[in-house]
Design a protein that fits this description.
The protein is an alpha/beta fold and about 300 residues long. The chain is built from 10 helices and 17 strands. The chain folds into 2 domains: about 230 residues, Glucose Oxidase, domain 1; about 30 residues, no CATH class.
Amino acid sequence: MSDHSRRQWLTAAGTLAAAAALSSPARAEGAAGVDDFVHTVKGARVFDLSFVWTEQSPVLGLNPPYAFALNRTHKMTHEFFGQAPGSQLSWASDIMYFSGQHGSPTIDAIGHIGRNLRLHGGVDALAATSTPGGIGADLGIEAFPADLLVNRVVFLDVARHVAGGRPDPLPGDFEIKGEHLEATMRAQGVEVRRGDSLLIRTGFGQFFTQRDKYLGAQSPGPGPDGARWIIAKGVRLAGDDTATFERRPAAYGKELFSVHMMLLADSGIYIVETANLEPLSDARVYVAVLVMTPLKIQGATGSPLRTIVLAP
């Protein structure tokens, strides 16, 4: 695809973001125009950033365990309703799912992390979580902005850049600093713009099915210097392919989870974890459209995601 065609496609797909932000449906200028738009979007390459989640999937011990069960099976419902003359009805229903917010991938709500008992905007953390309704003050995941449901995304393949073009993961103790993000951005010939979503590959997604490795004592990720770079760029959402986003152990001096505090509490930047970024790395897709739709749960500290990227 030529650069001109790519720009046309991104422009067309980018209108999805504007449409998502409208409170009422946009008026179509004509069926032909709508058909052209659908044809353009349907012509995109689709990259699924989600892993398949099972009871064997890695969940950090800080989080509630994952569990899944069918409360009603086809056998059970057929015994109730399938014996009537002429009826062969059955269904499976009431699916039980328990996991907290963490899935594959997952997003942290702005109110997930506080600093000195203050949430983003100076909100009192104790008061904001004093009711059974979860996090208040519009800091729960239900307040995820409509214009971020569909957004321009820049993918920085830091692991491949550091490895000289090989797909090797970063070492477990590797701290991604601003210089690594800047160098990767320049090497890929892309630009992180204010308002963008940002995805950072450490390569640790290769270990998702190796629970002990994925949840080991160490995993790479941004440190405070990398967080300052992200904040300075005006990014609104940042994610990677590890269970904690920031480097683990997430301790810098006496401070724990500095990066989470810097992005969520200090800057109001959403954090995405456990994204499958290997397909983007394999395809060398660095600028595209990110479609991300958290569950709209009142007061929730985050949400599992089914996340896709659309590229020309």
